[in-house]
Amino acid sequence: MTADPISDRVDDVDEARTSGRQKIDWAFEHMPILTALREDFEASQPLAGETVGMALHVEAKTAALVETMAAGGAEVAITGCNPLSTHDDVSVALDAHENITSYAEHGIDDVEYYEAIDAVIGHDPTVTVDDGGDLVFRIHEEFPEKIDTIIGGTEETTTGVHRLRAMDEDGELDYPMFNVNDTPMKHLFDNVHGTGESALANIAMTTNLSWAGKTVVVAGYGYCGRGVAKKADGQGAKVVVTEIDPRRALEAHMEGYEVTNMDDAAERGDVFITTTGNRDVLAARHFEDMQDGVVLANAGHFDIEINLEELGELATSTREVRDGVQEYELVDGTRVNVLAEGRLVNLAAPTALGHPVEVMDQSFGVQAVCVRELVERGDDYDAGLHDVPDALDKEIAETKLDAEGIDIDVPTDVQREYMDSWRHGT
């Protein structure tokens, strides 16, 4: 069975299209990078004749990227990468574009989710754009005959890159993929500021609780965890970091945070935020030691970081105490509150809008130029996982600086020669 485009499945298409269009236009007003790229793409048509298949969080900022791809001449088919992050009105507005088909719909089940991904694959994409890896893995596992006509793809998030790297090491990744997640522009801005700000904002809006005075346990001190810890600390919380990597643990310690293991932190935390991309970060042995009324949220990727199956087995009752807050009451009366069903709290919470617009402008700008690079120079890249060429990452930074009216120094010829040569002594 194949999914139908979302416009065939909503009651009031015109109302949804108007609402979605307003959201997309607002996003574009604050996305100078994609605005500049869209103008350039419209003029040069670098994606003419290509079909771009996408599995992303379908909301207004993503729509700006999708429309930039279409402006460059591409046919685009898109669906969601998380059943709870789709904004149906934005999906309908995208589907109204003559060169875009959107299958994304909020709240679909697992069967419908993969039917939508299969529908995107049915468009025979020549380029894939992924968040979490489900699209590229589905192609390899279920539609390997499509691979020969795929130039390459991009992957945006940590979880997807982990999976792709394992796939590449096993010799199972059969077309080139750009690792957008590990570019400086992604780490320094999207992960640190985007995840940090949006996760805390959506937890606060969902719970109506203050950060001041809370003990916030941040699981994982990668770039996302650093951002969450930094922003929580800035709002008056006491931050405790848990880690499995000794260098990251030491970094957190040297930056002034308490560092411990989760077994110890479980007894003391008021709010737990997972940012690891791994599974079972919070499990039965932790739930049993938690204080009454704790809040659990995931800012990683998939809904596996908090083991909800084990929490459900421990609970004597569950109920929704606020929109987006599920309370689990344990045998001893302890109440454990889980936000957004353990999915990405900054995208799946009831009020969630994802990362700030300006931050996603930078990340999606990198995605756009990576797609352009694959179309123009795809033959230069063998099958496997590739770093994004540094010149592309710098191009996006320069575009942003230009939009902000910020000037930086330019090295002289003498300075360039000095830095590039090994012949100069001390």
From TrEMBL:
Free-text cofactor note: Binds 1 NAD(+) per subunit.
Family stated for the protein in its record: Belongs to the adenosylhomocysteinase family.
Function of the protein: May play a key role in the regulation of the intracellular concentration of adenosylhomocysteine.
Name of the protein this chain belongs to: Adenosylhomocysteinase
CDD domains in alphabetical order: SAHH
SUPFAM superfamilies cross-referenced by the UniProt entry: Formate/glycerate dehydrogenase catalytic domain-like, NAD(P)-binding Rossmann-fold domains
Gene name of this polypeptide: ahcY
Cofactor: NAD(+)
Top-level taxonomic group: Archaea
Keyword line: Cytoplasm, Hydrolase, NAD, One-carbon metabolism
Residue sites binding substrate per the record: D131, E156, K186, D190
Keyword Transport: no
Pathway, per record: Amino-acid biosynthesis; L-homocysteine biosynthesis; L-homocysteine from S-adenosyl-L-homocysteine: step 1/1
Every S-adenosyl-L-homocysteine hydrolase NAD binding domain range: 191-352
GO BP term, example: S-adenosylmethionine cycle
PROSITE patterns: ADOHCYASE_2
Cellular compartments per GO CC: cytosol
Localization: Cytoplasm
Enzyme Commission number(s): 3.13.2.1
Catalytic activity, as annotated: S-adenosyl-L-homocysteine + H2O = L-homocysteine + adenosine
Residues that coordinate or bind NAD(+): 157-159, 191, 220-227, 243, 278, 299-301, 346, 355
GO molecular function: adenosylhomocysteinase activity
